[in-house]
Write a structure and sequence with these properties.
This protein is α+β, with helices and mostly antiparallel strands and about 325 residues long. Strands 3-4-5-9-8-7-6 form a 7-stranded mixed beta sheet, with helices on both faces. Strands 13-12-11-10-14 form a 5-stranded antiparallel beta sheet. A hairpin with a 2-residue loop joins strand 12 and strand 13. About 40% of the residues are buried.
Length: about 325
Amino acid sequence: MKAKILQKLRASADYVSGQQLCEQFGVSRTAVWKAIKQLKEEGYDIEAVQNKGYRIKAAPDTLSKNELESLRKTTWIGQRIESFTVTGSTNTEAMQLGEQGAPHGTLVVADRQESGKGRRGRVWQTPGGVAIAMSILLRPDIAVVNAPMLTIVAALSVAKGIADVTGLNAEIKWPNDIVLHGKKLVGILTEMSTQIDCINYIVVGIGINVHNTEFAPEIAQTATSIFLESGVHYNRALLVEKICEAFEEYYALFLRTQDLSELADTYNKMLANLDREVRVLDPQGEFDGIAKGINERGELLVETKTGVAAVSSGEVSVRGIYGYV
């Protein structure tokens, strides 16, 4: 009920009477009072005025289930939300839920991760109170070979969600790192469970540096946060919501064709590497060229002296000639 009360208070520009809340939710005035009291204890600044009712003035920067549900406007993402103060990995939690039959669109969010996962076995740091760790469980009816393109869908969604909340023009370093001013802001890791010819579920994991002010020495030169780039503290739960809204939009476009033909132009406009010199780090041999954007399969087109190479992700990385981007 607390989430519903928050949602009602947020939707009103004026005071909401206790009687309105009682009638809408079918509970007693005492139950409403207790819920309001608990919300205040959780850090919500809720003003109570006799003969007027309640009005929300400020909300804490929390990733609680109540906060996430009260902001939710999505259609299918977040019908089930699992929120953790601390977890090992939201991807691991989401995959366990996938094994247990959790529905398509289940959202897992954590304030702090202790064993977050990055690409190629790297660790993604998610300190408490300053970052976002989130994972979306998907059960798409698509061919297994098309699943990797969902990392592109996720990258677009994160960049749009950040822009919607902050106004910052985040870019994408192919295939799915989100960067600001040449430094990494977001990491995305997609994992899946498959059978020979079908997908059981896919988990899209997203880690975002929001209020971080410092990083471990090994990444300090290449990492950044929304706060470091803007000087503003933004509500993390609102960021999660806006990313989920964007994901639903882009995911629907992807499903129509099961490729990126309807999204490639949008992606290329956000591509930090576009028309820049890049070095393709391929185990079969490195080469340099000019990044020309992605095709409908999400492959990076790299123009070389001998022609245009279509580079797929997997074991291949792309770096700028003179730096990270």
